[in-house]
């Protein structure tokens, strides 16, 4: 493989690794805050216990999030120096604001996790909400840089040089609102479903004491409600993102849908194989007119096809599968939540909860959502090819001229394997040694030892 | 000062904060392991207490430096990105191992031992690699022309001056952290650990200073311009040396006896209350530092503060000698400077950010560092357990 391909692989692996933990960093604080809120306002200690156990896991995940984030931040400069040079001239503001968001996140997290009994339950709720806000802010800011890469703005070109730089306009570039909306709700949705999966998995295990079953059921229903709301929002924001693409990045939408000819009443093809030589999509399930509706809001709307653009600007056509798979995840989680909601309403009287097969479906939602995040990002990034910054900087020009990338890529991939293994091993060991204890007197009260080491993640 | 020089000064400040914070952090990791291998549980305890709270804040500063470089001097970001691919990647890998294993070690006892070893080794290797940036920034090992740069790693490693930088970087890291840990041991009443850390600081200090001078002497002929400029900035280095002597005097002043185990609510001599409730006034020193200093704060605390000033002065002198170059002699602050509109926006963001951050940080520091629950150091080696400090 060539130098450039290795650099792209390394960047994709690093970002793909970071996004998993980053998503938890964004979503877990919200779930913790909701659990703290439920504990406070419903006076139910099960939720306090839930918040405490989620927090334990969060601290470990946060560590992997911070180190992998530090890696991507520096690696962007090491692997794509031309890109960062351009970023520095136009869109470095979000990066700098983000540094402060990180500071605040570290501080609020430490207060929430380690202040123990020194702050009240209400204080803990406030701290958790603050963490949620700051973590959300860091996601918004970094996504903003990516939005700029998709639809750059805020400068004029004089030959190759950028002049008349307007940093705020660059920050408020066209794809910023839709992208941020979609990224945030998918992060919340993913974490809610992952936690729902864990609870459903526990409910499925054979010999589970009834107190624990009630606890897991509460956890699962809380997560499913959040997940359900967020799935609906995901679909809405995804639809907005699609309409945005039609207006601002038509070539990406055309590639996502495998649409070659510009047309009205364009069909939405699910699956199938885009064939560039035959200039049509082979197989797949076609829903006539629906693509036009998705892209423009009217069945008669015109959608631009790939042939409107020179072939050297086409992204790889396999992004069609990535896109379809992402949407499939959204549809699937929506179906499962609706089914779970209906079942829960019908069984309200009986404490036995959801039937086993439905619990099995709930278990599937967590991993699938994580997959959805990965698919969405990979689609977004590969769908922008051959550009790193649309129309301004090609990926091939952005890459470092320094040799040695394959070696470095191998080292990093080994590192991520170790980190993934270590994180899973530590989490498992921790929860095995600290099983759920419900019958203790102070069961719900977070039992933070006062002498516990101060440990910022 | 022009805008580019202001930007360079901000970058300078971020580097100083990181250099000091990282020295504390990495050095504590090393000393924790060193003490633990020798069975000094108390010294290890002191070191560990210190590594933990600082880790993430230091890390954010590490992120701040490239971010500031990218925002203020995009052309320099390009140059350093190209040059530092290999060392930079190694630093990232080591940092990742260190950061995660520290957390693993704190979550699961099974990883404890491994964590200590990792903290020690990464605590030496990461600073060593980071220090390599200094000779590179002076143009050592940089080959090719602008836009076709490459780092001649072998050439860099054959340069004696590189080892001067390495030795200086590592000793100053260990010196600073030993000093800080001595102060921290004193505050928590860990007297045997205090004695050992103090002795190490006393030994390492002169070595470090000799190495700093050695770097100057080892610079190759191509660097005569740098040698001259360093000499021209001698007042700053003189100030640094004065601070260094001050450190030595302060440490001597506290030498006579181990610090008294702090008793409950022991009033500080002179009646001025200090921030830490557990502070002991220290033994009555025999030296000349008595009087106002001792009544205000303990000499060991002063030694730490003076050491930070010592670094700040030397760093300022070095920075002035380095100007106007960001990457000598290819890139100057002017030629690498960002768009002025970008610079002003970043400045506004920085000021607002610091205005938000500082009050929160101060509150946080007091919340955790000064009002925390009593912590008992393990007994010193072979000596009776200390009273646990009360607050
Ligand atoms: C759990 C994850 C998940 C799920 C279920 C969905 N998405 Fe998504 N999608 C993402 C996770 C994601 C993402 C990872 O967050 C992306 C990548 C970049 C971005 O802006 O968000 C994304 C990007 C993205 C884009 C490209 C935006 C761009 O490149 O500028 C479009 C058009 C959609 N999505 C549309 C949808 C639709 C119509 C969905 C149907 C329900 C959907 N997504 C479900
Ligand atoms: C859209 C994708 C991303 C999201 C949602 C995201 C979000 C986050 C969050 C929430 C954290 C806090 C750590 C945690 O809670 O796990 C984090 C850490 C970090 N992220 Fe990302 N991130 C993304 C991509 C990136 C990229 C591309 C970069 C590089 C420019 C980056 C740089 C960092 C850094 C440097 C940290 C560590 C902060 C520290 O030192 O405290 N992130 N990220
Ligand atoms: C965190 C979720 C993300 C994932 C999973 C992801 C994934 C990828 C992938 C698969 C590539 C390779 C594309 C190719 O070359 O074919 C890539 C490249 C790249 N990404 Fe992302 N990305 C993410 C977020 C971001 C963000 C937030 C930024 C900007 C700050 C960013 C900046 C880049 C750059 C500069 C490249 C290299 C140039 C290019 O290929 O366009 N990525 N990423």
Q: What's the layout of helices and strands?
A:
The complex is a heterodimer of chains A (457) and B (391).
Chain A: H1 3-42, H2 45-79, H3 81-90, H4 93-114, H5 121-150, E1 156-158, E2 161-163, H6 167-171, H7 176-204, H8 210-248, H9 250-257, E3 263-264, E4 268-270, E5 273-275, E6 280-282, E7 285-287, H10 290-296, E8 302-303, H11 319-346, H12 356-382, E9 387-389, E10 393-394, H13 395-398, H14 405-433
Antiparallel strand pairs in A: 1-2, 3-8, 4-7, 5-6, 9-10
Helix pairs in contact in A: 1-2, 1-5, 1-7, 1-12, 1-14, 2-3, 2-14, 4-5, 5-7, 7-8, 7-12, 8-9, 8-11, 11-12
Chain B: H1 3-37, H2 41-72, H3 74-83, H4 85-107, H5 112-131, H6 133-137, E1 142-143, E2 150-151, H7 153-158, H8 160-188, H9 191-218, H10 224-232, H11 234-253, H12 292-296, H13 299-322, E3 325-327, E4 331-332, H14 333-336, H15 340-370
Antiparallel strand pairs in B: 1-2, 3-4
The complex binds CIS-heme D hydroxychlorin gamma-spirolactone and protoporphyrin IX containing FE (HEM) (2 copies).
Task: Please explain how this structure is put together.
The complex is a heterodimer of chains A (457) and B (391). Chain A contains 14 helices and 10 strands. Chain A is mainly α. Chain A is globular. In chain A, the strands form 5 sheets. A two-stranded antiparallel ribbon of chain A has the order 1-2. Chain A has a domain at 181-398. In chain A, a hairpin with a 4-residue loop joins strand 5 (273-275) and strand 6. Chain B has one domain (3-259, 291-372). In chain B, the strands form 2 sheets. Chain B has a two-stranded antiparallel ribbon. In chain B, strands 3-4 form a two-stranded antiparallel sheet. The model of chain B is unreliable at 256-296 and 380-391 (pLDDT under 50). At the A-B interface, helix 2, helix 3, helix 4 and helix 14 of A face helix 2, helix 3, helix 4, strand 2 and helix 15 of B. The structure holds CIS-heme D hydroxychlorin gamma-spirolactone (HDD) and protoporphyrin IX containing FE (2 copies). Residues 8, 11-12, 15-16, 18-19, 76, 80, 83, 142-143, 145-146, 374, 377-378, 381-382, 384-385, 388, 395, 398 of chain A line the site of one protoporphyrin IX containing FE.
């Amino acid at each position: 493989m060539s130098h450039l391909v290795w650099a792209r692989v390394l960047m994709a692996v690093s970002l793909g690794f970071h996004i998993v933990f980053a998503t938890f960093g964004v979503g877990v604080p919200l779930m913790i805050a909701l659990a703290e809120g439920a504990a406070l306002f419903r006076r139910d200690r099960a939720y306090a216990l839930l918040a405490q156990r989620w927090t334990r896991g969060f601290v470990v995940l946060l560590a992997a999030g911070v180190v992998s984030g530090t890696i991507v931040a520096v690696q962007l400069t090491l692997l794509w120096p031309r890109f960062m040079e351009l970023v520095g001239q136009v869109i470095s503001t979000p990066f700098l604001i983000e540094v402060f968001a990180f500071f605040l996140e570290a501080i609020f997290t430490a207060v929430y996790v380690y202040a123990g009994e020194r702050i009240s339950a209400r204080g803990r709720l406030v701290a958790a909400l603050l963490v949620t806000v700051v973590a959300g802010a860091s996601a918004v800011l970094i996504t903003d840089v990516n939005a700029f890469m998709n639809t750059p703005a805020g400068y004029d070109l004089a030959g190759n040089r950028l002049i008349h730089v307007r940093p705020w306009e660059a920050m408020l570039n066209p794809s910023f609102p839709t992208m941020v909306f979609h990224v945030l709700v998918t992060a919340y949705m993913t974490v809610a479903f992952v936690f729902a999966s864990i609870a459903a998995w526990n409910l499925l295990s054979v010999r589970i004491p009834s107190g624990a079953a009630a606890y897991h059921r509460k956890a699962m229903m809380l997560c499913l409600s959040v997940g359900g709301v967020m799935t609906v929002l995901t679909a809405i924001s995804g639809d907005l993102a699609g309409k945005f693409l039609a207006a601002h990045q038509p070539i990406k939408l055309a590639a996502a849908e495998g649409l070659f000819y510009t047309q009205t009443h364009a069909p939405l093809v699910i699956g199938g194989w885009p064939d560039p030589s035959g200039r049509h999509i082979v197989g797949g399930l076609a829903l006539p007119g629906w693509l036009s509706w998705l892209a423009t809001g009217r069945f008669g709307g015109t959608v631009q096809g790939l042939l409107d653009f020179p072939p050297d600007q086409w992204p790889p056509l396999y992004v069609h599968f990535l896109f379809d798979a992402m949407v499939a995840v959204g549809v699937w989680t929506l179906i499962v939540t609706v089914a779970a909601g209906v079942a829960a309403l019908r069984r309200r009287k009986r404490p036995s909860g959801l039937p086993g097969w439905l619990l099995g479906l709930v278990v599937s939602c967590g991993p699938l959502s994580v997959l959805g995040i990965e698919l969405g990002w990979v689609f977004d990034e590969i769908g922008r090819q051959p550009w790193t910054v649309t129309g301004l900087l090609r990926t091939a020009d952005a890459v470092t001229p320094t040799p040695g990338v394959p070696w470095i890529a191998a080292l990093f991939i080994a590192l991520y394997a170790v980190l993934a293994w270590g994180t899973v091993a530590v989490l498992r060991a921790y929860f095995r040694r600290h099983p759920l204890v419900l019958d203790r007197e102070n069961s719900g009260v977070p039992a933070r030892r006062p002498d516990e080491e101060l440990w910022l993640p | 000062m022009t805008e580019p020089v202001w930007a360079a000064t901000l970058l300078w400040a971020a580097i100083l904060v990181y250099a000091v914070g990282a020295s504390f952090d990495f050095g504590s990791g090393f000393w924790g392991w060193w003490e633990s291998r020798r069975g000094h549980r108390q010294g290890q305890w002191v070191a560990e207490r210190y590594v933990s709270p600082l880790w993430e804040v230091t890390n954010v500063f590490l992120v701040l430096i490239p971010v500031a470089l990218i925002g203020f001097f995009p052309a320099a970001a390009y140059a350093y990105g190209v040059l530092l691919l290999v060392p930079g990647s190694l630093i990232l890998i080591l940092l990742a191992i260190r950061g995660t294993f520290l957390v693993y070690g704190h979550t699961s006892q099974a990883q404890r031992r491994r964590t200590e070893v990792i903290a020690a080794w990464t605590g030496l290797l990461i600073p060593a690699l980071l220090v390599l940036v200094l000779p590179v920034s002076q143009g050592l090992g940089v080959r090719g022309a602008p836009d076709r740069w490459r780092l001649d790693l072998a050439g860099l490693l054959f340069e004696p001056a590189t080892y001067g930088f390495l030795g200086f970087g590592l000793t100053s890291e260990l010196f600073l952290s030993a000093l800080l840990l001595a102060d921290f041991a004193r505050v928590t009443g860990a007297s045997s650990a205090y004695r050992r850390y103090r002795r190490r600081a006393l030994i390492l200090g002169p070595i470090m200073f000799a190495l700093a001078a050695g770097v100057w002497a080892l610079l190759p002929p191509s660097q005569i311009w740098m040698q001259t400029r360093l000499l021209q900035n001698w007042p700053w280095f003189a100030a640094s040396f004065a601070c260094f002597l001050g450190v030595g005097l302060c440490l001597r002043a506290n030498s006579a006896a181990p610090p008294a185990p702090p008793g409950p609510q022991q009033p500080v001599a002179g009646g001025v209350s200090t921030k830490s409730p557990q502070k002991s006034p220290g033994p009555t020193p025999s030296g000349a530092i008595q009087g106002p200093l001792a009544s205000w704060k303990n000499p060991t605390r002063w030694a730490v503060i003076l050491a930070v000033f010592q670094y700040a002065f030397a760093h300022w002198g070095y920075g002035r000698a380095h100007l106007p170059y960001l990457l000598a002699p290819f890139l100057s602050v002017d030629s690498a400077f960002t768009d002025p509109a970008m610079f002003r926006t970043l400045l506004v963001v920085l000021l607002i950010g610091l205005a938000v951050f500082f009050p929160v940080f101060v509150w946080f520091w007091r919340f955790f560092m000064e009002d925390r629950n009593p912590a008992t150091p393990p007994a010193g080696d072979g000596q009776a357990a200390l009273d646990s400090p009360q607050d």
